[in-house]
Each structure stands twice: as structure tokens, then as C-alpha cells.
Amino acid sequence: MSATRMLVLGVVFWAGKAHGYQIRAELQSWRADSWARIKPGSLYHALRRAVTDGLLVDAPEQGDGGPDRTSYSITEAGRAELTRLVRSGLSTPGDPWMLNAAIAMLPTLRREDAIARLKERVSALEVQRREMEDWSFGGPPIKPEHVMEQAQLWLAQLVADLEWARKLLAKLEDGAYEMTEDGTPPSIQV
């Protein structure tokens, strides 16, 4: 639910105000259903829950020739929760769904904040890589032998994640991507 919550809050933050169908269409255009496991039902559940939790406010809105609909706006608490989720998704290895959502919401952070979170990720991945190397190569042989293939896969994934994080960190340090520097979001069309 956290990746879904992050994406819902992020799209509403960027849009300023949006109704459920707009949020769903935006996330579908990003193909978030495949890389964040977002389903229409979970999206609407996340919207209702965010309103209940005080992260979004909802208001009835006249439909364009159709039925009335509900539009959503983000609250200060919602903005704080979005920032917390993106920071966590970037800095904490182990949850690919949260990482994918955090990458999509990267510009919602200030540049120095994103850089700090990626440095945390790099440090955590370096520790995990050393631990995996010690486990894979430093002790007695792994039994049964074919289990070593798992260790090789996990190590390769850690190395790839580490390489990717270092490259993104360098891009951000070099000024890549429009970020939320002045407290206002980069614009998207919703």
C-alpha cells in the first residue's frame, strides 16, 4: 500500500487538484500497474484512506457533462507523508516496489534531500554487498552447491543496484532533473 499511497499523493501534489479517474489515467500512462503493482481498486482504496488519515481533502466537483465526481487536494500532512515515503523508498534497499515509486516521485524532493537519501542507499548497499561476499566466499562452502547460484544472483543484484544508485547520485549532483527546489512541484499534465 505504501508505494500506491506514495504515487497517489505525488500525483495529487503535482496536479494541485485531481479526481480519481485523472490520477488513475496518469499512473496508467506511466505503466505504474506493472512496476508498482497498482490496481484500480487499490488506487481508490488509497484515496479513501488518505482522506481518512488527513493526507488529502476531498470535495465534490461538477462532472463534465456526466455525474459529479470527487476531487482531491493534498494537505500539509499529506505533503510530509509523501516526502517521508519517497525518502524511505530511495534510501532503504529491499523493496523494489517502493524504489520504483520513489524514482517516479524523485522530483518531489529537494535536490540536496534526494542526494542525501541516495548516499544512504549506497552506504546500505555497500554493507549488504560485503556481507553477501563474506557469506558467499568467506566461509565454508555453501551446501548444497546449487544454493551458491542464489548467492551469485543476490550479489549480482546488489552490485547492479549499487551501480545504478551511484550513477543517479552523480546525475543529481551534476544538476540533472527538475526538482522541488522552491517548495513548488515541477509541473505535469494531469
Describe the protein.
By secondary structure, the chain is mainly alpha-helical. Helix 1 crosses helix 5 and helix 5 packs across helix 6. The longest helix has 28 residues. A 3-stranded antiparallel sheet has the order 1-3-2. It has 8 helices and 3 strands. It has one domain: Winged helix-like DNA-binding domain superfamily/Winged helix DNA-binding domain (Arc Repressor Mutant, subunit A).
**Separate helix tally:** 8
Distance between the termini: 22 Å
The major sheet is characterized as: 3 strands, antiparallel
What is the strand arrangement across the widest sheet?
Answer: 1-3-2
CATH fold-level name? Arc Repressor Mutant, subunit A
Keywords: DNA-binding
Protein name: DNA-binding transcriptional regulator, PadR family
Pfam families: PadR
GO molecular function, one term: DNA binding
Quick overview:
This protein is mostly helical. The protein has helices at about 1-15, 20-30, 30-35, 40-50, 75-90, 95-105, 110-140, 145-175; strands at about 20, 55-60, 70-75.
Please render the helix and strand layout as text.
Layout: H1 2-15, E1 18-19, H2 20-29, H3 32-35, H4 40-52, E2 56-61, E3 69-74, H5 76-91, H6 96-104, H7 111-138, H8 147-173
Antiparallel strand pairs: 1-3, 2-3
Helix pairs in contact: 1-4, 1-5, 1-6, 5-6, 5-7, 7-8
Record keyword descriptors for this entry:
3 strands, mainly alpha, 190 residues, 64% helix, Arc Repressor Mutant, subunit A, 8 helices
